[in-house]
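Our preliminary data section would be incomplete without showing what the modeling component actually yields. Below, a chain of 221 amino acids is followed by its predicted structure, encoded as tokens that our downstream tools consume directly.
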Amino acid sequence: MGDIIRIVLADDQPFVRQGLKYIIDSQPDMECVGEASDGEEAYHITAKTQPDMVLMDIQMPNATGLEATRRILQNDPKIKIVLLTTFDVENYVVEGIRAGAVGYLLKDTAMQEILSGIRWSYQGHAIYRTPSASKAVTEAVLNSQKPSADERSIHAHDSLTERELSVLQELAYGRRNSEIAERFHISEGTVKTHIHRILQKLEVEDRTQAVVLAIRTGIVE
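Predicted structure:
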């Protein structure tokens, strides 16, 4: 058996947490290691259990999911947070990306898709699978309203080749290696080489972190 994905569930509705916990614990590669009913509790339980991932509702009492996401990632940036909500709202998507969330899914998504999204994001991919999320990610990459870039991102922007910038933009759109290869008429091996170099230059561990950095700092134009 491979790695077990250790997950914290943060949602103010007990029946939602119970349903997700039952399904997650029934998976051979997943385990629910904690539950939280609000953002404040999510922060403390995550600090205690140190999970691989948090499935985070957005609208919760005491502290919102977005506030909890910021605090959790400030404490441990290795944790992957996927926002799981009933609201398909562009502003929430953009704020979630800026907070550091790696994905945005709706609660009425088919459970197999949610489980697939958990596995996909655990492997280092960004998942934004709603109409508003796709639009918001695109606009976040292309528009001019971006936070200021730090010295690291400015240096990385200068060091990325034109092709690497193009590949990074495709990653931000959520495209897979095979799709990028087809788009640029190159092999998947070449795509992997480009991604490896992008990660090195941006000084990040995986493609999700590269996308988040690109959106936050405006590396991709």
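The domain at 146-217 is CATH 1.10.10.10 (Arc Repressor Mutant, subunit A). The chain has two domains: 5-140, 146-217. Preliminary results of this kind motivate Aim 1 of the renewal.
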